[in-house]
């Protein structure tokens, strides 16, 4: 018996999800890329957005994104 012949709704839903996203699943496995990187970048941008409130220029917002996106190591002498 195949999973799609089981008649069990959660299994059928799982099988349909795999079928719909099969190419993306394979690409993720082959390339080792997930959307975690995009989520991380989005998190940095949202942080910059909240910190840049009150600045009137888009350039300041962009600068804050670049600043938060780098791992600066400030040493105090």
UniProtKB/TrEMBL annotation:
Coiled coil: none
InterPro entries noted in UniProt: Transpos_ISL3 (IPR047951), Transposase_DDE (IPR002560)
Entry-linked Pfam families: DDE_Tnp_ISL3 (PF01610)
Source species, domain of life: Bacteria
Residues covered by the Transposase IS204/IS1001/IS1096/IS1165 DDE domain: 2-65
Name of the molecule in the record: Transposase
